[in-house]
Amino acid sequence: MEKKKKIMVVDDDQDLRSNLQYQFAARDYEVVTANDGLDGLEKLNNFSPDLMILDLNMPNMGGIELYHKISEETGSPKHPVLILTARANTKELFENFNIDGFITKPFEIDDVIKEAGIIIEKKSNTGVSKEKLKALEARGIFFVDNDQESFNKVGLTFLNSGYKVNSAQTGARAIEKMMMDPPALALVNLSLEDISGDIVIEKLLRMPKTEDIKFILYVHRNGDHDPHILEKMGEKKSILGCVEYVNPDELLDAVNKAFA
């Protein structure tokens, strides 16, 4: 059996770390995350990655300082490095750095996945198939869930079924991200902690850039929700339905029907 390739993601954005972690894991990578350079440096004592994905601007220790900490006397890092940065003129900034790639923010998660696959293939010469480096079928969906266990399970279910997935763990973050890149369809947990799912949808439907998104509201089937209220919510404009679920496959069925 081929040994899993290892990736370390060092970024202070929790949503981004979580998103990259489960998306790489769905592609059979072993993934470790760190919230800043100090955390990453400590974890390198017990983890030798095939690729490090570094954000530049982080508290405590940023990506540039971490890069120098892991570099040999020759100036080359001990591990392949892919930089994530919001800085302008990154090409010039990194001309004197021996990095393997860089991606400027904002970016698509698929861009990071593809670039990482290309770097690892080049460094390891394992002959990763072109199919593994292609973007997933462009059936883009967005989902919002603040429960970490549900977040991971739902995300992996859709990734493993060939969907291109973006996500958020709060209503406020979901609104921000969908305004930047409106999806064709979004699944929103009604019971979000900061803004209830139906309010998230109402706010997005008021904005011209996101008014054409189709939505599916969902809740865990635990008896805490009035089925008549859920039915009424599912009848609202642009809401394709309100799904009570136990297994993430029930949400997958609802989305498959929407794309049929």
- Order of SSEs: EHEHEHEHEHHEHEHEHEHEH
- Structural class estimated from helices and strands: alpha/beta
Number of helices: 11
Strand content: 15-25%
Describe this structure in words.
The chain is α/β, with parallel strands linked by helices. Helix 3 links the parallel strand 3 and strand 4 (81-85). Helix 7 (148-160) crosses helix 11 (248-259) and helix 8 (171-180) packs parallel to helix 9. Mean pLDDT is 82; it is low at 126-138. The chain has helices at 14-26, 37-43, 63-69, 90-93, 109-124, 130-133, 148-160, 171-180, 197-205, 227-234, 248-259, and strands spanning 6-10, 30-34, 51-55, 81-85, 101-104, 141-144, 165-168, 185-189, 214-220, 239-245.
In short:
It is built from eleven helices and ten strands.
Keywords:
260 residues, alpha/beta, five-stranded parallel β-sheet, 10 strands, elongated
SSE inventory with pairings:
Blueprint: E1 6-10, H1 14-26, E2 30-34, H2 37-43, E3 51-55, H3 63-69, E4 81-85, H4 90-93, E5 101-104, H5 109-124, H6 130-133, E6 141-144, H7 148-160, E7 165-168, H8 171-180, E8 185-189, H9 197-205, E9 214-220, H10 227-234, E10 239-245, H11 248-259
Parallel strand pairs: 1-2, 1-3, 3-4, 4-5, 6-7, 6-8, 8-9, 9-10
